[in-house]
């Protein structure tokens, strides 16, 4: 059993804390917002993540997971502190490390205050996504805070590879765990900490130097974002030449060198990771005298893709001024309530700027959308109510609830009977057979291709 302090209760910190507590560790999570602490202490999950609610309630009830607004209280008696605070983008695109630095300073001061009573060495584990320079900065801060205290510490880079919507599964069944350290004691501690999740699959835990671990995280997100951007560009090409991206995808996915993951055309990537990490990688390279060319191109391509759907809507109608457009989906992807950098936000903003009225629905992101838009858009709890009286329906998120719509109801409710499928989750032939016009992302109807893409 390990005693852990976890600083931050966002998607990374809360999932990590709850999962480590679920296997018997004593975990105290820190959030500076007393309202969040109170909600979590009551067993109420503050984010939407499938499976997390039950784990949270169980671990809170059995006392293995606790919450506080004091870093010092959490660090008291802890073997390790996991720093999982946000690293938002600065205007330049570089990470804003102030939250990491502030948390590190508080951890150092707490350890100094405890002095000989602090568990030593204390392991400071960086879960936040960072660049190599911040690892060095964290070490320097702790050296300064703990100078002459007698407290020993090791800084470990342990990047997370959790996807929103599948984070609980990703944590319990990891594809790999990367630990960046040069300390034998830290390596031994991290191997023991993760052993409940690695016993049945030896070799999952990879030990590297700290900087390589950090770059591995940035590389993974950049690589995945590149796949998404390339598929979206190919979908635009398919639109131009009359091909079907789903048939193209089938040909790509069966190539063992490529595989089937992240090969779906759509409205562009969003969320808190891909765009932010790509921009930070670009700026970090520049700071070290290296100019990257492909990495910035990924972001530029994605920015163009996010504007494509509103352009398609405008092109179809000539003008959307005064028209009501229904939008299904506001979260950046299914199985989360996160709307950060969501393509749906770009689409809605663009349509509003063109004079359209927006009626929207999302199974989980309604509250966050209401906080963002207020009365500038109309939100509905029922997806069909959002369609009533609209000229067109635009599908922006691949929620299961949108994959088998009642086409008769859509035909009855839509004034102009046109459907824009931003996620390619519907069969164009079925939509058209129901008497609705279908416009997808690089798609063609059955009568145009004569084929159906088989599911991959």
Could you please describe the fold and organization of this structure?
The protein has 456 residues and is α/β, with parallel strands linked by helices. It folds into two domains: 3-207, Rossmann fold (3-Layer(aba) Sandwich); 221-449, Rossmann fold (3-Layer(aba) Sandwich). The protein has 19 helices and 14 strands. The protein has helices spanning 11-22, 34-41, 52-61, 71-75, 98-114, 132-146, 167-172, 184-198, 210-241, 245-253, 274-287, 294-306, 308-317, 343-353, 366-373, 383-387, 407-413, 428-433, 446-449; strands spanning 3-7, 26-30, 65-68, 80-83, 122-126, 153-157, 177-180, 205-208, 324-328, 357-361, 378-379, 392-395, 418-421, 437-439. Strands 3-2-1-4-5-6 form a six-stranded parallel beta sheet, sandwiched between helices. Strands 11-10-9-12-13-14 form a six-stranded parallel beta sheet. Helix 9 (210-241) crosses helix 12. Mean pLDDT is 96; it is low at 446-456.
List the helices and strands and how they pair.
Elements: E1 3-7, H1 11-22, E2 26-30, H2 34-41, H3 52-61, E3 65-68, H4 71-75, E4 80-83, H5 98-114, E5 122-126, H6 132-146, E6 153-157, H7 167-172, E7 177-180, H8 184-198, E8 205-208, H9 210-241, H10 245-253, H11 274-287, H12 294-306, H13 308-317, E9 324-328, H14 343-353, E10 357-361, H15 366-373, E11 378-379, H16 383-387, E12 392-395, H17 407-413, E13 418-421, H18 428-433, E14 437-439, H19 446-449
Helix pairs in contact: 1-3, 5-6, 9-11, 9-12, 11-12, 13-14
């Amino acid at each position: 059993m390990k005693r852990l302090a976890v600083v931050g209760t966002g998607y990374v910190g809360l999932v990590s804390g709850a999962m480590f507590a679920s296997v018997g560790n004593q975990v105290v999570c820190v959030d500076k917002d007393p309202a969040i602490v109170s909600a979590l202490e009551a067993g109420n999950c503050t984010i939407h993540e499938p499976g997390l609610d039950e784990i949270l309630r169980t671990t809170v009830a059995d006392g293995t997971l606790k919450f506080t607004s004091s870093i010092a209280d959490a660090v008291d008696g802890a073997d390790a502190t996991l720093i999982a605070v946000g690293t938002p983008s600065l205007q330049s695109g570089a990470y804003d490390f102030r939250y990491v630095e502030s948390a590190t300073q508080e951890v150092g001061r707490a350890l100094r205050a405890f002095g000989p009573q602090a568990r030593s060495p204390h392991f400071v584990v960086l879960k936040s996504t960072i660049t190599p320079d911040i690892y060095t900065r964290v070490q320097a801060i702790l050296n300064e805070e703990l100078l002459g205290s007698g407290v020993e510490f090791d800084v470990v880079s342990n990047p997370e590879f959790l996807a929103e919507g599948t984070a609980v599964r990703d944590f319990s069944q990891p594809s790999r765990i990367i630990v960046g350290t040069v300390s034998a004691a830290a390596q031994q501690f991290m191997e023991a900490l993760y052993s409940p999740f690695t016993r049945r699959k030896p070799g999952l835990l990879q030990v590297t130097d700290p900087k390589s671990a950090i770059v591995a995280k940035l590389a993974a997100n950049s690589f995945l974002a590149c796949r998404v951007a390339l598929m979206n560009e190919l979908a635009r090409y398919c639109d131009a030449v009359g091909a079907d991206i789903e048939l193209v995808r089938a040909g790509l996915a069966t190539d063992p060198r490529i595989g089937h993951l992240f090969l779906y055309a759509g409205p562009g990537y969003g969320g808190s990771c891909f765009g932010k990490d790509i921009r930070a990688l670009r700026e970090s390279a520049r700071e070290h005298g290296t100019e990257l060319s492909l990495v910035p191109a990924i972001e530029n391509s994605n920015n163009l893709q996010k504007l494509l759907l509103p352009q398609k809507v405008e092109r179809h109608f000539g003008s959307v001024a005064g028209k009501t457009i229904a939008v299904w989906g506001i979260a950046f992807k299914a199985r989360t309530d996160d709307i950060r950098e969501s393509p749906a936000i770009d689409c809605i903003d663009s349509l509003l700027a063109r004079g359209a009225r927006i009626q929207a629905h999302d199974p989980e992101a309604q509250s966050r959308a209401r906080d963002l838009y207020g009365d500038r858009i109309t939100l509905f709890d029922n997806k069909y109510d959002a369609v009533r009286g609209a000229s067109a329906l635009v599908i922006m998120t691949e929620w299961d609830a949108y994959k088998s719509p009642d086409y008769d109801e859509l035909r009855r409710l839509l004034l102009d009977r046109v459907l824009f499928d931003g996620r390619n989750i519907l069969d164009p032939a079925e939509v058209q057979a129901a008497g609705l016009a279908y416009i997808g992302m690089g798609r063609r109807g059955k009568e145009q291709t004569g084929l159906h893409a088989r599911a991959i």
